[in-house]
Every structure is written in structure tokens, then in C-alpha cells.
Amino acid sequence: MIVIFLGPPGAGKGTQAKMIAARRGIPQLSTGDMLRAAIAAGTELGKKCKATMDAGDLVSDDLVTGIIGERIDMEDCKPGFLLDGFPRTVRQAELLDEILEKKGRIIDVVLELSVDDEELVNRLNSRVAETKAKGGEVRSDDNEETFRKRLGVYNEQTAPLVPFYKDKGLVKTIDGMKSIDDVTAQIEAALS
Ligand code: AP5
């Protein structure tokens, strides 16, 4: 099973993908988490990406596609995997198609999480408040100004993936405004 989670920042992609991955025993591949891990480890990759991510822009298509291409070659991805935050541009989607075609694999479904902009900003503020309350480190791109920039980048560069995948008959739209449990139930129904 290969599932893509598509949606704006704060839509709940990570929350849902982690839960569904745990239930199905397949990995959740988050390019955002992979890049943040590279930054935290001080690798060359992390150094290359930090300024771009802090500004709320997208890192290069070739770079993220290279990371995903290597990751899905690993043994644990054989039964399937969930993509969270990738692809994010039409170019990334085309490159992913090329990678999967070479491996004889196909995307099963693209789950589009739909959430209003103001709710997204509320969720960002809650995430920041929760992280501070737990004494954790707030993401450097989780301030309202950068978050609104990320929303703009989503609308310009990532939203065109909805018609791209609709043309392939792969999109199922999930009402992401509902409670976390309700959204999980909608996703389970879409996957069954
Ligand atoms: P990335 O890490 O992918 O961030 P994002 O897409 O902006 O998404 P978020 O992690 O902010 O939100 P989410 O949808 O996962 O929501 P969450 O579940 O946390 O990307 C960060 C950066 O990395 C990019 O800007 C770019 O620079 C770079 N990057 C990454 N991938 C790239 C790529 N492919 N190409 C180029 N660059 C790339 O939920 C948010 C909050 O809401 C949480 O507090 C959660 O508890 C809460 N919540 C979730 N669901 C609900 C609900 N139903 N009701 C109420 N609250 C909810």
C-alpha cells in the first residue's frame, strides 16, 4: 500500500500518518522530519536546507526526491509506506512516478486533508503553546509570519497536485476540520 497525505501546513498530515502507519505496521515517511533530523545532526544536507526551511520555502525538488528515492528502497518499505509532506510540487510528483514505475509499484490513494486557513493558524498556535508547556523546542518555522508564508507556498506550489492526482483518479478528500478521531475514521473508510 502506498498512500500520499496531501494538505496545507497544520492540516494534520503528521498526526494522522503516524497513527495509520502504526496501525498498519508500515513506515511513515515525512520529508519535513527527515530534513529537521539532518539539521539537528549538523550534516551537510542539514546545513544546505536550514535557511530555506526557516524562511518557509521549499528545498529543491532533486534533493528531497533523492532522499525519498533512497528511503523507499529500504526493506521496511516493501509492504508499503505513507508519504507525509512529499511530493510537494508537480515536478516531485513526476519524479516519484518515474521512481515507482522503475520498481513496478503504484500509488494506491492520495488523501487530501481539507482545513480552513484560520483553523490552520489556530492549530499552529496550539502546537507552539503545547510544545512550550512540555519544555520542548518550538520549530523554527512555527511562528505566525513564516506559517502564513508556508500557506502561500502550499497554495502556489503544492495545491496544483490536487488536480494532478484527480486526473489519475487517485484523490479522496477528507474533511480535516473534524476531531482527530473523526478524521482517522474517515481515513480508515477511505483506505478500506
Ligand atoms: P513539514 O514538516 O512537512 O511541515 P508542513 O507540511 O508545513 O506540515 P506541519 O508539520 O506543520 O503540519 P501537519 O499537516 O503535519 O499537521 P500536524 O499533524 O502536525 O515541512 C516543513 C518544511 O520542510 C517545509 O516548509 C519545507 O521547507 C521543507 N520540506 C518538507 N518536505 C518538503 C518537500 N517535499 N519539498 C520541499 N521542501 C520540503 O498537526 C498540527 C497541529 O494540529 C498539532 O498540534 C496537532 O495536534 C493538531 N491537530 C491535528 N489534527 C487536528 C484535528 N483534527 N483537530 C484539532 N487539532 C488537530
TrEMBL record:
GO terms for molecular function: AMP kinase activity; ATP binding. GO terms for cellular component: cytoplasm. It catalyses: AMP + ATP = 2 ADP. InterPro entries: Adenyl_kin_sub, Adenylat/UMP-CMP_kin, Adenylat_kinase_CS, P-loop_NTPase. Pathway: Purine metabolism; AMP biosynthesis via salvage pathway; AMP from ADP: step 1/1. SUPFAM superfamilies: P-loop containing nucleoside triphosphate hydrolases. Belongs to the adenylate kinase family. PANTHER family: NUCLEOTIDE KINASE (PTHR23359). HAMAP family: Adenylate_kinase_Adk. This is Adenylate kinase. It comes from Parvularcula mediterranea.
